[in-house]
Amino acid sequence: MTADAYKNEDRQADPAHVTTREEAEAVTEFLLKPGLFGTPLTPGETALFRELPLASVGHPHDTCWYFRNGDDRLCAVLGMRHHHNHTGIYEVYAFAVDPSSRYQGFGRRLLTCGLQYIASVQGRGMIVDTSAHPSYAPMHKLLDSLKFALVGRFPDFYYAGEDTLWYYHAVNSGGS
Ligand SMILES: CC(C)(COP(=O)(O)OP(=O)(O)OC[C@H]1O[C@@H](n2cnc3c(N)ncnc32)[C@H](O)[C@@H]1OP(=O)(O)O)[C@@H](O)C(=O)NCCC(=O)NCCS
Fold this sequence. Notes:
This protein is an alpha+beta fold. The protein has a single domain (3-170), classed as Aminopeptidase. It contains five helices and seven strands; from the N terminus they run αβααβββαβαββ. A seven-stranded mixed β-sheet has the order 1-2-3-4-5-7-6, sandwiched between helices. A hairpin with a 2-residue loop joins strand 6 and strand 7 (162-170). Helix 2 runs antiparallel to helix 3 (43-55). The protein is globular and about 40 Å long. Bound molecules: coenzyme A. Coenzyme A binds next to strand 4, helix 4 and helix 5. Coenzyme A is lined by residues 37, 95-97, 102-108, 130, 136, 138-139, 141-142, 145.
């Protein structure tokens, strides 16, 4: 299956793929909502959330998916891009579920979709950096349950006193 075929295929229970400016702008608005993350965004994260969803529209590698809830409101987002080494590693640059829609399986389905996408384009793996702050415990548990390996810790990476944790999931072209 080609990357475009995978992105555009209409599969029940799969997230929608951002393909228009309107969708990209809705994703950016969602990601910048106060209180979505347990710690303040860095200036660089804010810039990426403004730029990358739109830049992924029509991009050959970078992707962005979202879910809507029962009220048709955007409630969950995964943004992922090909790492700048361009050797098959994909990095998650945005991942969040609206507080009112958490613990309903959206997060797991988004990451699973990302891993399947990487397999479909013969990528090698997914890297996620996430905060070590206790408010990210659901994220750590989700990554553990999806068999991501904790591969590193960088002290004071986001801000003084806030470490980053690096998680990695290898992917092979036969599946995730
Ligand atoms: C982390 C996050 C994306 C999880 O999304 P979600 O849709 O609620 O997760 P799911 O419903 O798919 O849950 C999957 C697994 O995550 C873990 N999990 C999710 N919420 C949890 C909670 N409140 N407490 C403990 N574990 C939790 C569990 O392992 C769960 O599996 P289980 O249902 O078998 O117990 C969501 O909590 C979130 O947006 N948090 C704030 C933003 C954030 O931390 N983003 C990551 C930055 S890199």
